[in-house]
Amino acid sequence: MYKHMHGAEKSADYLSTDEWIKRDWPKIIAEYSPEDTYNADETGLYYCAMPEHTDLFKKGSAEGFKSLKERVTVLCCANVKGEKRDLLVIGKSKNPRCFKGVRSLPVDYYSNAKAWMTSVIFNNWLVKWGLELKRKIVLLVDNCTAHTNKSLLKNIKVIFLPVNTTSLIQPCDQGIIIAFKAHYHREMRAQIVAELDNIQDQSDARPAAKKISLLDVLHLVAMSWM
Fold it and tell me: Coil, helix or strand for 89?
């Protein structure tokens, strides 16, 4: 059987993965129950991006278009039992115009100039979660620089997965994030199709995609995560 290797999987450390599963994982599940064992990982989401491929008849043709690059970072977090934390979303704007008059958001929203995860945002998220907890949990995360744990956490123990192993053993990388994105794009494109009825040129979906506000995105990602 031939298999095409993608992305991080090409550089994955299978030996370290096997050692971690045999040495460290049994200790974690012996100390923490499934509902107290969490994994979190972030992903970039081009929230207005249209499909890059289309179906055509054999001799048909279609015009290309420039992809929309508006982006947010989304942190997904769930436990072994399948219970999900509210999403953390990072955008570029601190006070988007579309937030005016909005009293509450369906996600935890943060911002910085590049819409990236930072150690400050990660630690603020941890502290806020820790204050809500009435029990002790363990959180598994990869060892990217933004995940530096600088806070004194009473109820959250952060464990960093070994380098170059997350594509093999991190639960969020085993289909959870892919499924979330699939749900999001389905919901987003359904909204665009509905909007096309109000656009004169119904062959071009980009104007409808551009009408999707950041507030719309936050509601769509929350719906997709659920």
Answer: strand
Residues with pLDDT less than 50, the chain: 1-6, 53-57, 59-62, 64-65
Task: Give per-residue pLDDT as tens, 146-165.
Answer: 998 877 899 999 999 998 88
- Residues 161/169, Cβ–Cβ less than 8 Å: yes
Query: Over the stretch 17-34, which tens digit does the pLDDT of each residue have?
Result: 999 999 999 999 999 999
Instruction: Parse the chain into domains and list their residue ranges.
Output: 14-48+66-225
Q: How many residues does the chain have?
A: 226
Tell me whether strands 108-111 and 137-141 are parallel, antiparallel or unpaired: unpaired
* Burial label, 207 (beta-carbon count in 10 A; 0-12, 13-18, 19+): middle
Phi, psi of 47, rounded to the nearest 5 degrees: -80, -10
Q: Which residue has the tokens 């081009």?
A: 46
Query: What CATH code would you report for 14-48+66-225?
Result: 3.30.420
Handedness of CA 160, 141, 124, 31 (dihedral sign): negative
For strand 37-46 and strand 71-79, is the pairing parallel, antiparallel, or unpaired?
Answer: antiparallel
